[in-house]
Amino acid sequence: MTGSRSLRVEERARWRVIEAHAPLRKLFPGVDVVEDIVQDNPAAALVAASRDVDLVIAGSRGREGLTVPRSRAVTHALVHHAHCPVTVVADHRGV
């Protein structure tokens, strides 16, 4: 990806994250949320980020039928290697 295209993709990703968190920011205005877009192994990036925060909240989709779903592997690595407490929230929508 060229430099300018990569920046556009990153900017769109950042806005999608900010928009997704907007309703929660209104419900919990006293909670600081760190939003960062990184190009790294997801588990490694989250474990590294856990050094500088008080709590990491991770989602778990709990999909069945896959031997090792990527989201579960990332959450598993985070739970076992994070430098702060981790809360895992299951996604029960549509269940």
Q: How would you describe this structure in keywords?
A:
single chain; mainly alpha; two-stranded parallel ribbon; 3 helices; 2 strands; 11% strand; globular
Low-pLDDT windows of residues: none
Largest sheet: 2 strands, parallel
- The average pLDDT is 81
Mind telling me the C-alpha Rg?
15 Å
Q: By helix and strand content, what is the structural category?
A: mainly alpha
- Using DSSP, what is the number of strands? 2
What global shape is seen?
A: globular
Listing every helix as H and every strand as E from the N terminus to the C terminus, the arrangement reads HHEHE
Provide the helix percentage. 40-55%
Q: First CA to last CA: what distance?
A: 38 Å
Arrangement of strands in the largest sheet: 1-2
Secondary structure tally, helices: 3
